[in-house]
Amino acid sequence: MAKPAPSAVYDPVAKALHWLIALAVIGMLAVGWIMVGLPNGPEKFALFQWHKSIGITVLLLALVRLAWRLKHPAPLLPSTMPGWEKFAAHAGHFLLYALMIGMPLVGWVVVSTSPLNLPTMFYGFFQWPHLPVLSTLENRKEINDLAAWAHGVAAWIFVALIVGHAAAAWKHHLINRDNVLLRMMPKALTGFLNRLRGQK
Q: Which of 28, 32, 65, 146 could form a disulfide with 17 if both were Cys (CB 3.0 to 4.6 A apart)?
């Protein structure tokens, strides 16, 4: 079966997944930074549960989005974009996918090797299991330290990529005046976004 040709804009499912993941990632990062500054206690434990639950949600949604993307190609980038900029755009998307999937997995390793052995309650509905074997390893403390460090570094990289991703989209909209931003936006916002750059 021939691979479907890219359309001019992302389809509704891709748009919905994009914005759901975006909101979840921002929420995950915000809760993560708030909770690390709190003293140990019920409030910190509750925020940890929210952070872990949102992280699992990001992982699951990212896997769904990746599967959808493989069957539904992304719209082509403008032909006027220079080669280096297209490369940067593809590299940025690859890194975002890697973090959307990799960062929750590393967090799962942190939880599974923690000496505290605290449960993960998925939004309070059921207990999410630890990764098998990891909690029984003799060197789990070293694994936990390394995974926790990687998780923290990944958070800062994630922030940098998100800011760069958003800045690039707005640069294309306001300076290049192409459709890069519009192809991921809900159709209802098209008129408003065009007026922002002086178009009717």
A: 65
